[in-house]
């Protein structure tokens, strides 16, 4: 136990460390020397604290630039696209630090103008990443200064943090909007179908009533076109001859009387 840290004065003469019984005072002294040595080899605590505070403040600055800086004043869809564009610009430089074609962008580019120039707070974030306006060959650019590589990495990490938080929320909101739209469309379709069914039912009923009315009117017209019925005639029979009295009257001869 800590025998390697014991000084020769701590070990009695003629005694090996393996055979020597533990000496509490010697062990405590060895532990104290080890702690002092480790403290000398470690960086001062105040340096670590200062570095942590510096990065913390920078992260907080980027977070404030995102929200409320970008997310609140802009339409949500535009704000999220702008954050993704800023992250793409930063990641291209981080992945290709020696390729200067990724070090600049033109504010007159239609996509850049739509997502970084027109929305509020987006150019401010690009400047915080390390981009600064510059003119080359009478063309405006935003150029990245490699001295701000540390800020670029922190800003990219904060963009990723925000997107990981906001994109799922947007996805849930989109699904909710789609479900609400589908329910609204279904309700409208049901109302329309009910209206069409009612109209068809009314049309069918009206047709049946018309057909019944036309049938009644046709029957009435047929009855009106028939000739009037003649009254029935009364005939008197002669039981013996089988002739009627009308027949005898027609011949002008008196009926035979037997």
Folded structure, characterized:
It is built from seven helices and three strands, in the order αααβααββαα. It has 258 residues and is mainly alpha-helical. A hairpin with a 2-residue loop joins strand 2 (131-136) and strand 3 (139-144). A three-stranded antiparallel sheet has the order 1-3-2. The longest helix is centred in the C-terminal third of the chain and has 77 residues, at 149-225. It has a domain at 55-177: Methane Monooxygenase Hydroxylase, Chain G, domain 1, CATH 1.20.58. The chain starts with 23 loop residues before the first helix and ends in a 7-residue tail after the last helix.
Structural class: mainly alpha
The CATH topology of the domain at 55-177 comes to Methane Monooxygenase Hydroxylase, Chain G, domain 1
Number of helices: 7
Strand order, biggest sheet? 1-3-2
Distance between the termini: 175 Å
The rounded Rg comes to: 55 Å
pLDDT under 50 segments (min length 5)? 47-51
The fraction of residues assigned to DSSP E strands is 5-15%
Main sheet makeup: 3 strands, antiparallel
- Tally of extended strands? 3
Helical content band: 55-70%
- State mean pLDDT (0 to 100 scale): 80
According to CATH, what is the class of the domain at 55-177?
Mainly Alpha
Q: What pattern of helices and strands is seen along the backbone?
A: HHHEHHEEHH
CATH architecture of the domain at 55-177: Up-down Bundle
Q: What is the 3D shape?
A: elongated
Protein name: PUB domain-containing protein
Biased composition (Basic and acidic residues): 203-220
InterPro entries: PUB-like_dom_sf, PUB_domain
Pfam families: PUB (PF09409)
């Amino acid at each position: 136990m800590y025998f390697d840290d014991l000084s020769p004065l701590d070990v009695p003469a003629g005694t090996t460390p393996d055979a020597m019984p533990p000496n509490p005072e010697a062990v405590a002294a060895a532990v104290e020397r080890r702690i002092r040595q480790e403290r000398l080899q470690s960086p001062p605590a105040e340096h670590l604290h200062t570095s942590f505070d510096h990065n913390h403040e920078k992260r907080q600055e980027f977070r404030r630039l995102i929200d409320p800086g970008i997310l609140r004043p802009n339409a949500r869809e535009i704000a999220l696209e702008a954050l993704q564009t800023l992250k793409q610009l930063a990641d291209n430089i981080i992945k290709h630090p020696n390729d200067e074609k990724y070090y600049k962008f033109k504010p007159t580019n239609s996509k850049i103008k739509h997502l970084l120039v027109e929305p509020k707070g987006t150019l401010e974030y690009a400047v915080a990443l390390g981009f600064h306006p510059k003119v080359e060959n009478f063309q405006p650019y935003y150029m990245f200064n490699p001295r701000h590589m540390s800020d670029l990495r922190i800003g990219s990490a904060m963009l990723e943090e925000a997107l990981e938080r906001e994109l799922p929320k947007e996805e849930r909101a989109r699904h909710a909007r789609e479900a609400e739209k589908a329910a609204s469309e279904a309700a409208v379709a049901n109302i329309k179908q009910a209206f069409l069914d009612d109209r068809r039912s009314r049309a069918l009923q009206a047709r049946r009533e018309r057909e019944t009315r036309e049938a009644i009117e046709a029957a009435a017209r047929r009855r009106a076109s028939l000739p009037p019925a003649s009254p029935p005639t009364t005939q008197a029979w002669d039981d013996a001859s089988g002739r009627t009295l009308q027949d005898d009257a027609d011949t002008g001869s008196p009926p035979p009387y037997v």
